[in-house]
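Q: Hi! First time asking for a complex rather than a single chain. Here are the components, and I think there are two in total. Is that enough to go on?
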Amino acid sequence: MEGDIVQMGAYIGAGLACTGMGGSAIGVGNIVGNFLSGALRNPSAAAGQTAMLFIGIAFAEAFGIFSFLVALLLMFAV
Amino acid sequence: MATEANGEEGGLALHPMAQFEVTPLFGGDTVAWYTITNVTLWMAIAVIAVTALLVLGTSRRAVIPSRVQSVAELAYGFVYKMLEDITGKEGVKYFPYVMTLFMFIVMANFVGLIPMAFTTTSHIAVTATMALLVFFTVTVLGFVLNGGKFFGLFWVKEAPLALRPFLAIIEVMSYFVRPLSHSIRLGGNMMAGHAVIKVFAGFAAIAAIAPLSVLAIGAMYALEILVAFVQAYVFTILTCVYLKDALHPSH
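A: Yes, that's all I need. Here is the structure of the assembled complex.
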């Protein structure tokens, strides 16, 4: 328990890194929400745009995944 | 790693990450590149399942398709349409590669959802291999097909001239970070979902909250079935987008 301040810092850092996932979640929610509001106004055009929807989600999600990676590295690799 | 269920307070009955351990199948505890491990086994099962589905589905080509044939046709049409929509007619040449990727990933994800199974796609080593293969394929293809014009991918013509060098730096960085995000998206999603299921399974050892935890496992499992498909779809669609960049590099 005593003296392992590097380990403590790594765990705190891992927890802080996870807040990045929240930002990514906001981004994904924003994309899907806007897609839905657009799709409900013009449902006939919605089917053609699902690929774009998923590409957008994937790119927004990437940053959440980077923060997840940082958390994992801090937990297991540092 | 608590082995006793009621040993210490707050300790989980099973460690959520224990399911991702690579163990040799036939004794021994060193893992070399030739060792047959559980990863090898479940990858082979996924490959056999894909082969069985597609071979059985196309062996008796009836006008009124059987169930297996319908699934095989749906998968084929789905990937074909996705590729054609994004890359256009020129990209259809690369259909076998994209179809192979999609079928392997989706089957590995679904096979990994069987209880006690091993999810091969939850390992970064597996997904990084596929992502790096896509990355190198796209880079080589881009230079072979377009020569020096492939650098146009990084030189945004629509932007004002003063801004272009900075955009070029960002574009180059985002190009090289592609295999990283491409692989970790799939691996991370699969690993996180399975770990969450195992965390709830660990809570089931405590009698008071066991029913709630079983319900949560059911809900997470349903979500994981969706995620297994969506992540395979996202991996494939990003492969298509990268292929499109190699075929038409002008921004």
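A: Chain A touches chain B at residues 51, 54-55, 57-58, 61-62, 65-66, 68-69 (CB under 8 Å). Let me know if you'd like any chain examined more closely.
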